[in-house]
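G., the chain you wanted modeled:
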Amino acid sequence: MQELYNKNVTNRIAVNTVDISNLAVCIEDVRRAVLTPLQSPEPPTDFHELRGRLEAVKDKLPKLYQETAVKPFLRKLDELGPRGFVDILIRDPERNSNARLMLDIAQAILQHGEGYFPLATDAFQEVVSDLYDGFLSAADRVGVKPPDLSVIPALVKWGSPESGPYTWPVDATSVFDLQAAIVSLPPIHANAGVLSWPSLPHEVCGHDILHADIGLLEELSQTVWNELNRANVGHNLPDYWASRIDETASDVLGVLNAGPAAAIGLVGYFRGMNAAFTGKAALRNIGPTDDPHPADILRGYLGAYATGLLEFSGAQEWQRVILAEADKDLASIRLENRAVDANAARESARIVAETIMKTKLRSLEHTSLSQIQNWRDRDEQITLALRSLLQTTGTPLPTLYRDGFYAAHVIAAAVTEALSKNANPEIVFQRMVTLLKMMHDANPSWGPLIVPHPGDIFRHFAYIPVIEAQKDVQLYV
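Predicted structure as tokens:
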């Protein structure tokens, strides 16, 4: 098996070229998925029924989430009682605020405990756990103090399709005494839409992770404003980007975690969603005042330039390809009702990407985000090796692949394989989910021990024998 793995790595590296010739097929896959009217089950709005179902499943979640989510939520419900529960529902009839939050927490617990889409739910959970681990474990934060706020990986759920991907960060869920966030995807993406999964690095690596270190977001916002103002980009772009730093930095962190797949995946996903809602598969050039996200076209440029700054040898080629894709959708850019010159928009995105990735931040002990996490040739080579496992059905996935890789590698492999010539996105999607499920089954956070960050469990070697170093070279070069 090891020899086969080494051979696969060598063969795939020899043909390591950027191929997104299947992008239109993947966009259509997203469009069809978004238009599929699959609804997740509604949690009961009867207090006693909900309380009984939660009680029945409370021991089915791992110890970590029993202590940080299930038990605190049950205590809060008991404190509210039937009258307080109904009052929350009455005060939020549109289900956009506290009632939606309360029901989403309940749904996350019930979906795990009652086995709703069990294969895809475990795969989804594995991606979220891995992304948290990538920025918050001690192994990745060498020389950086632990986060100011202890962050447990979010619980996942499948939510209303019209809401798209979204997150309740921990400062919201703490209203119900939870110590974990909630991340939601439309339920159809349990079965289809491979380009929807690259949205997870954005959702997961933003919000809670950016809020884990006190002052980080504020420092990023001010630094971005300063650099754009110094460059004199004009068009109110310093204020525009700085006021959207949470979403902007989340895009960059997604690229740092999942490499170019996060950037090109978002371009394809946005096109697919826009095709479903407007009939036009293109990035939007309009950025309304009340939208906390940068305009789609700017996010395309941001992802491209962030990719170009990564530490793998193909970074510049991927930057060129993603920039070219964004340029295909370039029209008249209007941000907050102001016309913005395209060259200024591109230049601002380049400055923002470099500032967020490379600035050594006081809130991180003068460490940059790219020093904590990055995408390197080793990550690219692992991704290439995994792609061969995602091509065909009928071949069992070897147990070798449960260990030694991260969920981000699997997402990257699935996206780049689905985008390549003649790939079948449906087959790639199902194999991706199966592989992530295998990894989830080996995740210690979902076992009997309380392990917030599996990355903290690693041996510190005093000496590595030469033979082991040679194995490493064989495996990854």
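The chain has a mean pLDDT of 86.

Shout if anything looks off.
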